[in-house]
Structure formats: structure tokens, C-alpha cells
Design a protein that fits this description.
The protein is of the alpha/beta class. The protein is 37% helix and 20% strand. The strands form six sheets. Strands 1, 2, 11, 12, 13, 14, 15 and 23 form an eight-stranded mixed beta sheet that branches. Strands 7-18-19-20-17-21 form a six-stranded mixed beta sheet, sandwiched between helices. The relative contact order is 0.18. Bound molecules: flavin-adenine dinucleotide. Flavin-adenine dinucleotide binds at residues 21-27, 45-48, 53-55, 68-71, 73, 240-241, 269-271, 274, 279-280, 302, 397, 402-403, 406-407, 434-435, 443-445, 447-448.
Length: 511
């Protein structure tokens, strides 16, 4: 590795081969891949004081909790999730999340336990999601126009309407995508490639070293470190990039501190939320097709609110009690609860997950108001003698200017070619990476991991083989009105037939 001196680092004119903006999973994997390919002349510019990005641990109630990514999602199928492999290699402390008993752990607003009703609705939800997934597959195969998951539910003939139905629906979709079915693309999320390819088990990370330990270990593979601290001058923390000039001859990256770095290439791994916010000024401005694609995609918000209680009052006898649902008439109002009794016995900690508008609202209100709201909900669930939380932690992913949300979600109407426009490099010099650039695993740690490798390989193909593809991804021909249309119609016909069958089935089973 070529070493640079402290003086070099201070020199604004110092030139590198590659600049990487952001030291989350994607940025570190991009650099790791370049280093493996023999390119060590790079610098990583990171706005915060740490690596890991949205993999971020914190201390709460004397325990290490995860503010961002928490689960290794997608485990137990024949294809192995690379994050699962890494987590095992580094012996992360993980707990299987058992959702099997969820329908028996539904609490309604008036204090009733929704046991039986929960089972019935869960069964119906399972049937409808299976049917919706198969419609999603058909639509992808025939490449017919996208619809939302909600539209698919309407076609199926059943839209959740009661509080219990709504909270189960929330658990099924919003709890995964952080946006409601009305927004989420059928074609690109049903079935979810993560669970379809890697398996449908999830493991919760509860490790004193934090989930981000994986990013740290990947960084240590190519950056100098001492006693677990990275000392390599090629990693520059507390460095906020605010402008990037790019042309086919190279790039110049400027920071809020007034420094500038030159290179032949830059890989930008900041979140979709940051790209949409305009924190970084690109010169020249992005072409319209890029701006449109970036603006069409969604940066969703997902918030885990951590709560500490003076004593435990929730059932915690075994793994089947871990997850609880609260069925409020207002869909998405403090809906999914999880205690941490298995991971941290005696810590008396629970967390509740909210998303989207509720996340934005709660991020902005004083914590004592959130405590009051949460307390009312818990009284509804467990009775009037429930104690107030004695501590609360509300992560603020939406208002943090270095994230602007939690993870991307594929909204209805964004076609594959438009998605490719998000990834597409500009002028052979400016490359894009990060979870939002992975077509199948956007929104996940493994998506970020693969996207780092992909962007580095794209850059290497340009640098080493002169394959600097710089075209605007176009709509496939049949979208512009060719004869392929016929197949679409056939598939639609088949879908309509299935739809009718499903409707009949629903009518029969309706209570
Ligand atoms: C609350 C929450 C829960 C999640 N749960 C899960 C989960 O359970 N399982 C799962 O697989 N995934 C989960 N995710 C998603 C996962 O965390 C992300 O997909 C992944 O960590 C993204 O990595 P990245 O490298 O693409 O982006 P980031 O981690 O955002 O890295 C980008 C880096 O760029 C830096 N940066 C931003 N702006 C600038 C700038 N102007 N100049 C320099 N640097 C800048 C940021 O500080 C950051 O370090 C969750 C995310 C959140 C927020």
C-alpha cells in the first residue's frame, strides 16, 4: 500500500487514484475490493467521527443496542447471505427472531387480547400475501406495468380495515419496507428477493462490539490499525464533502472545512436521502434523467424507540413472547413491540418500532411527550398499573443530515431502467454505490455490501480495461409499444383468472 504522510494529507492538491465518499458498509467494501485488485492509492472521506454509517450501536440502560441495522436478514436458504457468513466468522452474538406466535400476541386498544381473531386474520393474511407474491412474479416475468402492493390487495379482494387486520398488515409490509403497501412496488418487492434467495429467517445482533464490528473488520483487512483503532491516514473522519466537480479528466472533491482532494475517479456511497437533500453540490449538475430517477426512489424512515422500565411487566416466558402487536384504530400508531429479555435478561428494556409519518412526527416531538404516548399505549395493552418508562432513546435518522432517513424502499412506478439510472456512472469518473443502488437487496446491509463490490468492479473495468460505459439506461423496446405487448396481455388474462378464483375463495371464507 502506498503510504501518505501527514503533510501530504494536509496538501489540498494531493492527488489520488480514487476518492471514496462515505465509510459505511458500501464505502468500506468498495475500498476493500479496490485494494484486493491492487489499487491502494485511495482516500476515504467520512462525515462523522466513525465508520459504519447506518450500522451504529449506542449504550442504553447499560447495554449495547443498535440504533440502525439490527438483524442479519435472509438466512437458512441454500444461497448464503454474505453478512451471515461474516457474522459467524467474527462470532457476533445473535438471536433467532421467532415470529411464529405473533398472532397470539396481539393487544387491542380496549385491552383485549386478540388471540382467536389474530389467528384467523393471520391465516387470511398469509393466503393473500402468497397470492400477491405470485402476482408479483407474473408481473415481473411478463414485464407488465407495475402496481402497488395495496392495489394487489384490492384485486385479491381484501383490503385490511379493522385495527387487528391493519396491524397484521403493518407487520407484513411496513415493518419490512418502512412504507405502507399503498406506496410499495409489487413487482420489485413481491416476493422480497432477500428472503426468496437467502431464506426467511432473521437473526438479531446483540453484541457489545456492535453490528458495525463487521465493517471495522472489513476495514482492517486493508487499512492500518492498532488495537482495533484505524490509524491509516487514508481514512479521513469528520470530513464533510459538500461539492464534487467531475469531468472525463477526473474529479475534485471539496469539503466543508475548505479542503480539496483530486483524483481520477470518485465513488459516492452517501445515502439516497443525502443525494436528494442537495448537501453535496455536483458540478456540472446531474442530467435531468439522473435527477428524476433519484427523486422517484424513496428514502423511507424506520425508528426503533428504546424504553427502559423500573421493572418487567410484560410476559417473557420463552422466545414466543418476544414480539407483540398493538392494534390501534390509527394504523401505525406504536404497532410493533419487542422485549429484550432474551438478549439482556433483567435490563427491563423494550423497544417499539414506528415508520414513515409517525417516525417523522415522533423525531420532532420532545421525548417526554413520546413517553406519555407510549405510557398510554402500554396501559391499553397491559392495564392501568403499568409503570412509566424511566428512560427513552429516539434515534433521529430522518433529521440527521448525513442520512436523511433509514433505508430506501422501491415505490410503485420505478422501472428497472430507471433504477439503473440511479446506479449509472457519469463521465466515466463519478460512480455511485450504497444500499439504494442494489437492484435486489436495496434497503439491507447485504445490499450495501454487494453495491460496494459492484461499484468498485465497474470502476476497475473502466480503469483497467477501458470499459467506461457511460450511457443513459433506456426503457426496453416493448415499453415503447412493440409487439411484445401480446405476452403481457396473456399474462394479464391469467392473472385475472387467478384473481377471480382468489375472490371466490375469499368470499367463501369470509366471516
Ligand atoms: C433504523 C434502521 C434499521 C435498519 N435495519 C436493518 C436490518 O435490520 N437489517 C439490514 O440488513 N439492514 C438494515 N438497515 C439498513 C442498513 O443499515 C443499510 O442498508 C446499510 O447500513 C447502508 O450502508 P451504506 O454504506 O449504503 O450507507 P451508510 O451506512 O449510510 O454509509 C454512508 C456513509 O456516508 C457518510 N456521509 C454522508 N454524507 C456525507 C458527506 N457529505 N461527506 C462524507 N461522508 C458522508 C455517512 O456518515 C455514512 O457513514 C437499517 C437501517 C436503519 C437506519
Amino acid at each position: 500500500a502506498r503510504k501518505i504522510t501527514a503533510e501530504d494529507a494536509l496538501d489540498a492538491k494531493y492527488s489520488f487514484d480514487v476518492i471514496i465518499v462515505g465509510a459505511g458498509m458500501a464505502g468500506i467494501m468498495a475500498a476493500n475490493t479496490l485494494s484486493e485488485a491492487g489499487i491502494d492509492d485511495f482516500v476515504i472521506l467520512e462525515a462523522t467521527d466513525r465508520i459504519g454509517g447506518r450500522m451504529r450501536e449506542a449504550d442504553f440502560a447499560g447495554k449495547r443496542i443498535e440504533l440502525g441495522a439490527n438483524w442479519v436478514e435472509g438466512v437458512n436458504e441454500t444461497t448464503t447471505n454474505p453478512i451471515w457468513e461474516l457474522a459467524n466468522k467474527h462470532k457476533l452474538r445473535m438471536f433467532y427472531s421467532n415470529f411464529d406466535n405473533l398472532s397470539s400476541n396481539i393487544y387491542t386498544q380496549d385491552g383485549h387480547f386478540a388471540n382467536k381473531l389474530g389467528d384467523i386474520y393471520m391465516k387470511k393474511l398469509d393466503d393473500s400475501s402468497e397470492w400477491i407474491e405470485s402476482l408479483g412474479i407474473k408481473k415481473s416475468q411478463s414485464n407488465s406495468a407495475d402496481i402497488s402492493v395495496f392495489t394487489a390487495q384490492r384485486i385479491y379482494g381484501k383490503v385490511p380495515s379493522t385495527p387487528v387486520e391493519m396491524v397484521l398488515d403493518y407487520y407484513n409490509y411496513d415493518y419490512e419496507f418502512a412504507e405502507p403497501p399503498r406506496v410499495t412496488s409489487l413487482k420489485n418487492t413481491q416476493p422480497n428477493p432477500t428472503f426468496h434467495n437467502f431464506g426467511d429467517s432473521n437473526f438479531l445482533v446483540a453484541d457489545q462490539r456492535g453490528y458495525s464490528y463487521l465493517v471495522q473488520k472489513l476495514a482492517e483487512e486493508f487499512l492500518d490499525s492498532k488495537d482495533g483503532v484505524i490509524t491509516d491516514p487514508r481514512l479521513k473522519l469528520n470530513t464533510v464533502v459538500n461539492n464534487i466537480r467531475y469531468s472525463k479528466n477526473g474529479v475534485k472533491v471539496g469539503t466543508e472545512g475548505g479542503k480539496s482532494y483530486k483524483a481520477k475517479y470518485v465513488i459516492v456511497t452517501v445515502s439516497l436521502g443525502v443525494l436528494q437533500s442537495g448537501l453535496i453540490k455536483f458540478i456540472p449538475p446531474f442530467p435531468d434523467w439522473k435527477i428524476e430517477a433519484l427523486s422517484e426512489f424513496d428514502m423511507a424512515v424506520y425508528t426503533k424507540i428504546f424504553l427502559k422500565f423500573p421493572y418487567k411487566f410484560w410476559p417473557s416466558n420463552g422466545p414466543l413472547t418476544e414480539f407483540m402487536l398493538y392494534a390501534d384504530e390509527h394504523r401505525g400508531y406504536y404497532p410493533v413491540w419487542q422485549h429484550l429479555e432474551n438478549e439482556y435478561p433483567g435490563a427491563n428494556v423494550m423497544f417499539v418500532t414506528v415508520t414513515d409519518d409517525e417516525s417523522r412526527r415522533i423525531e420532532q416531538q420532545p421525548p417526554n411527550e413520546t413517553i406519555e404516548e407510549v405510557h398510554e399505549v402500554l396501559k391499553n395493552m397491559f392495564g392501568p398499573s403499568v409503570p412509566k418508562p424511566i428512560d427513552i432513546l429516539v434515534p433521529k435518522w430522518f433529521s440527521n443530515r448525513f442520512f436523511g432517513g433509514s433505508f430506501s424502499n422501491w415505490p410503485i412506478g420505478v422501472e428497472s431502467y430507471e433504477f439503473e439510472r440511479i446506479q449509472a456512472p457519469l463521465k466515466g469518473a463519478l460512480y455511485f454505490s450504497g444500499e439504494h443502488t442494489h437492484e435486489h437487496y436495496n434497503g439491507y446491509v447485504h445490499g450495501a455490501y454487494y453495491s460496494g463490490i459492484d461499484a468498485a468492479n465497474r470502476l476497475l473495468a473502466c480503469k483497467k480495461e477501458g470499459k467506461c460505459i457511460d450511457e443513459v439506461p433506456q426503457a426496453p423496446p416493448h415499453r415503447r409499444g412493440s409487439k411484445k405487448r401480446r405476452n403481457v396481455d396473456e399474462a394479464e388474462m391469467e392473472a385475472i383468472k387467478e384473481r377471480d378464483a382468489a375472490r371466490q375463495a375469499w368470499k367463501k371464507s369470509a366471516m
